[in-house]
Amino acid sequence: MKIKGITLVFIGAACFGFTPIFVKTGFAYGYSLGEINIAQMLWGFILLWVLSLSKGLTTRGMTKADLWKVMATGTTVGLTSIFYYGAMQYLSASLAIILLFQFVWIGMIYEWVFSKSKPTRVNLISLAITLTGVVFASNVINGKAFDLPPLGLLLGLLSGFSYAGFIYFSGQVATKSHPILRSALMVTGSTILVLVVFFKDIPTYPLLDGRLWIIGAGVALVGAIIPPLFFAGGAPLISGRLANVLSSVELPVAIISAMLILSESVTWLQWFGILLILLAIVVNEMSGMMVKVKSRKRVS
């Protein structure tokens, strides 16, 4: 069962790493940020609700408070898409994903503020490694980062904040409800948010543009459907910290796919920075596993 859980989480995270390919392709064809986000969310909304209804899942056992909380948590998915894809309008896919991965240390802030869990010494070491990795990965050493659009950098960092919020809050609300139903409710919240943010795009939305719907379907599958479903199926079979470590595969997958398919260049110094970011995730999560093992031994 553990191998099954590891496999599902690994595949789910790897799929999310392919989103830049579809997003960048959409921008290359001249589609706007709003059009891509609307297409993605509508596909996700339709497919997840069809899947939920086909399995006979209903919200009957959920309270109104739980429904609103799940949908509100889903808005963080919509925000992540808006900020992350928006960053890719100004930055390379490689740098956008590096900024998204700042959720590693941003998540510590959420834990501190909402769970009153202060960062440990290992957490701070992990933070230092992460920020060092960002210095190398963003090419600050060569002065390249200072030539980048500030708006792109801001959007990239905001995507890290919203993604960290999704990771934190999704583990707090209606955890006993069916994973597929939770995903459908979350994408409902995301869809409403995206339609409100991009309401000006709705009157002129090209409903008969098949190419846009294909791109939207691709983004939805690898960004809004497969990852949450695979995580929902695999995460309960393994520890949360191991799931977080496995989810870091998204970073190299996104960068390698950007290199091979989008022809983006990544220097050896940048690869060194990327490895440092991955190391920070492993150090942070493995330390937590060690603490849990020690505490269990003391109890026994």
UniProtKB/TrEMBL annotation:
Main location group: membrane
InterPro entries (UniProt xref): AA-Vitamin_Transporters, EamA_dom, EmrE-like
Keyword annotations from UniProtKB, A to Z: Membrane, Transmembrane, Transmembrane helix
One Pfam family it belongs to: EamA
Compartments it resides in: Endomembrane system
PROSITE patterns: PROKAR_LIPOPROTEIN
Membrane topology according to the record: Multi-pass membrane protein
Domain EamA: 4-137, 151-283
Keyword Transport: no
Residue intervals passing through the bilayer: 38-54, 66-85, 91-110, 122-142, 148-168, 180-199, 211-230, 242-262, 268-291
GO CC annotations on file: membrane
Family membership: Belongs to the EamA transporter family.
PANTHER family: EAMA DOMAIN-CONTAINING PROTEIN, INNER MEMBRANE TRANSPORTER
Protein name, as recorded: Multidrug DMT transporter permease
UniProt organism field: Halobacillus mangrovi
